[in-house]
Amino acid sequence: MQEILSDLVAEQQALDQFLQRVPIREWKTKIPGQTWTIHDTVSYLAFGEELAHSVLDGGPTGGARSYAAAREMSATRGRAMRPQDVIEWWRHARAAVVDALSRLHETDTIVWFDDKVTAKAFASSRLADTWSHGLDIHAAMRADVEDTPRLRHIAWLGWETLPLAFSDAGETYSHPVRVEVITSSYAKWVFGPADTDQLIKGRAAEWCRVVARRLDAGETSLQAFGDVARRALEVARAQV
């Protein structure tokens, strides 16, 4: 768990530092293509970490029975707070999650909404959540985002949760998919069995944005070989 938790903290700190450079008046800026603002987005991150800690502590999901409910509850609560108070809310909640996860083995099981996930996947989903909403905030501020090796956790999670993604789409994950992606530094990340005929290849940054639902596969150079692989590009998401 040490590697994923170190990268999770680093991802959260990087976004935190960026937010410190965003003027308070800009917190009302809307996320491109959404009705949410930067303020709402950070509130959602804080609420999500608080909810995650409650579950890790053996408690309920804070009344949120779906992601849609969590979004609404976080926005309502956050709008009554000053930006700096929202930041502090997020900092305390995310620290509590990391502390709780640090006492687990990566294969330990966590019940999250209606699913059971490993601690490794759960931690990876917290990183994916931070990164994807960080993309939104950077886009709102028209700022560039530097892709880091931390994306490997998101790339893995997008592959790891393919069975769940197919199930949520009401379909059967009939054949395993192999994912082979290349980073900007020409490192190769490979997930899945070597003997499958279902393959996705391309750039790691694009695969991560597709599974984070921030980019449509048709807008990328990703290649899919096989019917299941092609469908995987449509349903995959780095979310547990």
Distance between the termini: 17 Å
Helical content band: 40-55%
CATH topology of the largest domain: Four Helix Bundle (Hemerythrin (Met), subunit A)
Mean pLDDT metric: 92
If you compute it from the alpha carbons, what radius of gyration comes out, rounded to the nearest whole angstrom?
18 Å
How many separate structural domains?
Answer: 2
Strand content: 5-15%
Described by strand count, sense and barrel closure, the largest sheet is:
4 strands, mixed
Q: Treating each run of at least 4 consecutive H or I residues as one helix, how many helices?
A: 9
CATH class of the largest domain: Mainly Alpha
Strand sequence of the main sheet, in spatial order?
Answer: 4-3-5-6
CATH architecture of the largest domain: Up-down Bundle
Category from helices, strands and their pairing = alpha+beta
Instruction: Spell the H/E element sequence.
Output: HHHHEEHHHEEEHEH
Q: Give the uncertain stretches in residue-range form.
A: none
User: How many beta-strand elements?
Assistant: 6
The global form is globular
Give the CATH superfamily of the largest domain. dinb family like domain
